[in-house]
Amino acid sequence: MKYQGDSIVIILPNGISSNWIQSVTEQPTTPQSTADEPWTVRRVLEWTTGHLKKHGSDTPRLDAEILLAHARGCQRIQLYTQFDEPLNDSVRGIMRELVQRRTKAEPVAYLVGVREFFSLGFRVTRDVLIPRPDTETLVMEVLDGVKGISAPKVLDLCTGSGCVAIAVAKNAKSAHITATDISAAAIEIARENVARHNVASQVDIIESDLYAGITPGMKYDVIASNPPYIPSAEIDQLDAEVARHEPRLALDGGADGLTILKRIIDAAPAFAASNALLLLEFTPEQADVLNAIVSNHGGYDEIVIRKDLAHRPRVLKARFRG
To answer: pLDDT tens, 252-263?
Structure first.
């Protein structure tokens, strides 16, 4: 490594110099290509992967591919069919900015504005939580719960991006889902995603503090939620990607992380159809205490804890009495 003006220059193992990194003054420099070594798709991917790995990314190659595909406006698979294609100045500039932001722990999903969930693409912004594979367990339990019901009604509380409601709608064509969220900004994103996936006839999005906006007397076959469940004092201790960038309103579950969960549990029976199910996502550390809360409530039977794909306790399933 050597200094050249205001830029740090790295001498790579093959002898090629790279100054496609931030300058000493934290201003990014422009990749310099030569006649022999242009900044091709392959070269940018390799450099970015190494750079993101040094800055703490757990998935540096995947991050690099997603960011470069976004910068080029192409599908990820095209990166591999165009490995040796040089990047123009515009694409290099976009990619440079994305990489710089990623090294500051900004989530890739927010950088590109899209996250895949249950094999569907969802628009995401910093107004909504990023959908995660853990929550696919909740979707699968909802889909299992509506089997055999001719026209099931589902209530999705704390919908965020709408990913749970929409995934259910796409896979249970006869289901009708009401999805609520207290955040007006999240509601806008959820409605965009409903339109994106053409499920407006199945999914109603309502701005509401849990059940507050639900018509009295409405009954649902499944009441499901991935609510805020992180204890307030622990949010700042989460990974920087989450603590710095994801909406605190969607994370903060109160002092013990159980405030919203308890509200959902207490009020749910008033909106439950005969033989209905309650499905709640939680963090694995809450499994025992949440099981005890539902067991002691008196309104639920057949209480089961379901594990996610990583074999961690993730979703509580309970049947409403009566």
So the answer is: 999 999 999 999
